[in-house]
Amino acid sequence: MPAPDVAALLADLERSDPDCAEDARGAIEWLSGGEPLETITELAVCEFLWYTLPTKVSGDRPATARALGRLLRLGGLERYAALCSSPVTAQILRTYARAGEDAGIAAYQAALDARGVLPPDVPELRWSSIMGPEELGAHGACSAALELAIVSGELAPGSTRDRKALTRRWLTTPRAELGGDNWLHRVQGERLNRWVLGRGEAWRELAQPFEVRLHAPIPAPAGEHLAALRWLLRRGGEPGGVPLVPDPPTAEDVKGPADAKGPADTKGPADTKGPEGPEGPGAPVAVPAVLAAPSGKPGRWGGDELAAAGEAAQRMGALDRDGRALVTTAVGRRLLGDAELLWEAATTALLSPVSHEHDLGVSAREVALMLLADGLPADRESVASVIGCEEERRSEIDASLAGLIRLLDAFGLRAGGELTSAGRAAALAALRGHALRPRRYVSMG
Q1: Which of 37, 310, 312, 340 is least enclosed, having the fewest CB within 10 Å?
Q2: Same domain (yes/no): 222, 351
Q3: pLDDT > 90: what percent of the chain?
Q4: Is residue 174 part of a domain?
Q5: Alpha-carbon distance 370 to 385, whole Å?
Q6: Segment Disordered: which positions (predicted)?
């Protein structure tokens, strides 16, 4: 049933044009869901005209758009009515009709971005394509704030920087209507809750205590960590990069001139002379992604540890292959100059899917990190009892767990078979980042 104000407008329209009123009735039901006209936003109108109408509503779509415009104009919503009869709307509907749905959706997304009312991703939050009630409320409220700022002249639709700044303020400002909470906390709480509850009884029993532990950001531990990763990034920034030959550095090589100068002097190759190889300046150093270096010698990293660190750095975009060497990228230089950013990238890598790894493997690593963070064994049977899987897929769990342990060792986060204090912080940070990631539609192609 339409809201009273909508019902009255439809009655007026029906007296003058019954066919138009019928089209308008169907459109407004899609658009408002029975709520009053005052709840409609520009984002909702655009999404209806440019996506819902051409993909979910049958009949004469241009006529339906015009009918909706007449109804909105009767209700005093002139800006929204103008959208219904705009050349942009007509062009998008023609694109759907002539070029197909993919082309129509591309045109819709471009037009919506130009309006400036779509909340952008910000460092604190990347929006999901599948939203729960809290996130949907936050997204709609933020869009309304952007719309108001544009209409008032405070914000230019094309200013990405200003849109992001307003979105960040809107998400993080305490709201009276939320009992003093803010939208960011609401969305994060919803995502954490879904992560805890979404995968069966055994998972819920293990994950439930982590809902509280992961509520607040996990600070990076004090001191320098990730020594092998730092060494690779420093050496990759020197002329010639990290040669792909089998001879790893000694642990003493971590302490280069840049370390003596302090953190401010470790921002990249321009002001940092990295450590030398074990045979002296310019000696070839192993990148065990190609050849495993000798291991077991006192004071040296094993080839497998350097291999794991190098592979992770490449997945981060921090190292790149250049002929027979790995070189540090702009991303790598930025990570090397920012300890917190490097820590975030490294902890994210603990749960980032590797090549050919399925969701089962990532889930296995999540369970393993929860068990390890609690000081419990993370063997195959313990992990499989939580996630459940067929016997023939146990090898996938083995591979994922081996990869996780290899990476924890490469990052120096284990000692004596258990996580160090930094390792526990890394496990919690990785779990939190994974739990708070945006939910996306899965492509079946």
Answers
A1: 340
A2: yes
A3: 71
A4: no
A5: 14
A6: 240-286
Q: Quick one: average pLDDT of 49-57?
A: 96
pLDDT digits (tens, 9 = 90+) for 355-367: 777 888 999 999 9
The DSSP element (H or E) to which 242 belongs, if any, is strand 242-243
107 and 236 fall within a common domain: no
Tokens of 410: 């490469």
For 120-143, b/e burial (b = at least 16 CB within 10 A) is bebeebebbeebbebbebbbbbbb
Q: Is the pLDDT of residue 248 over 50?
A: no
Q: Is 57 helix (H, G, I), strand (E, B) or coil?
A: coil
Q: Tell me, yes or no, whether 150 lies in a domain.
A: no
Q: Which amino acid type is present at position 403?
A: G
* Number of domain units in the chain: 2
- Asked if the structure places residue 339 within a domain, the reply is yes
Same domain? 226 vs 94: no
Examine the pLDDT at 279 and tell me if it is beyond 50.
no
- Residue range 321-341, pLDDT digits in tens: 988 889 999 999 999 999 999
Whole-prediction pTM: 0.81
pLDDT of residue 24 exceeding 70: yes
Residue 108: inside a domain, yes or no? yes
Question: Are 21 and 67 a contacting pair, CB within 8 Å?
Answer: yes
Structural domain ending residue among the three candidates 59, 82, 115? 115
Which of these, 17, 174, 168, 151, lies nearest to 80 by C-alpha position? Answer: 151
Exposed, middle or buried by CB within 10 Å (0-12, 13-18, 19+), for 438?
Answer: middle
Domain around 91: 4-115
Identify the domain boundary among 54, 86, 115.
115
The residue among 32, 23, 43, 45 whose CA lies nearest residue 4 is 32
Please, what is the average pLDDT of the chain?
86
